[in-house]
Amino acid sequence: QVQVRESGGGLVQAGGSLRLSCAASGSFYRINDMGWYRQAPGKQRELVARITSGGSTNYADSVKGRFTISRDNAKNTLYLQMNGLKPEDTAVYYCLAEVVSAVSGGYWGQGTQVTVSS
After folding, report:
1. With CB atoms 3.0 to 4.6 Å apart as the test, which of 2, 30, 59, 95 could cross-link to 26 if both were Cys?
2. What distance in Å separates the CA atoms of residue 50 and residue 59, rounded to the nearest whole number?
3. 3-state DSSP helix/strand/coil percent for the chain, to nearest 5?
4. Residue percentage of the chain with pLDDT more than 90
5. Once rounded to an integer, what is the mean pLDDT over residues 17-45?
6. How far apart are CA 84 and CA 12, in angstroms?
7. How far, in Å, CA of 56 to CA of 45, rounded?
8. Distance from C-alpha of 89 to C-alpha of 18, rounded to nearest angstrom
């Protein structure tokens, strides 16, 4: 089995910063791409940022220049540094790990709430 767990969400004022973490654990051979997604109330889940195992990244236009995605392959951990937060960044943030295992595929975490007050 594979488990994915996010941490680091919370309440912050506009202009502030938060750092999210996501740890993957369990039985697997390797993790390919990892990504952060978010879902605001009444809206569809959307991509925030993704990173390959080699470190190539892509970002949603709305977060470019403010958010930075990174990963530690030795620790099977993904990070999202969020600076210059805006009220419109308020959402539940989910981690996705593309895992190669006995049951390969995408594994989601349970999500962590990020709330930005104006």
Report:
1. 2
2. 7
3. 5, 60, 35
4. 97
5. 97
6. 10
7. 22
8. 11
Residue carrying the six token digits 């530690």: 72
Which of these, 18, 9, 44, 24, lies nearest to 105 by C-alpha position? 24
User: What's the token pair of residue 14?
Assistant: 């506009």
pLDDT in tens, 38-64: 999 999 999 999 999 999 999 999 999
12's tokens: 């912050």
| Contacts (Cβ under 8 Å, ≥6 apart) of 41 | none
Structural tokens at position 112: 């962590």
CA–CA separation, 110 and 94 (whole Å) = 7
CA angle, corner 40, sides to 35 and 46, nearest 5?
35
Q: What is the spatial distance between Cα 5 and Cα 24, in angstroms, rounded to a whole number?
A: 7
Torsion of CA 83, 64, 95, 50, to 10 degrees: -140
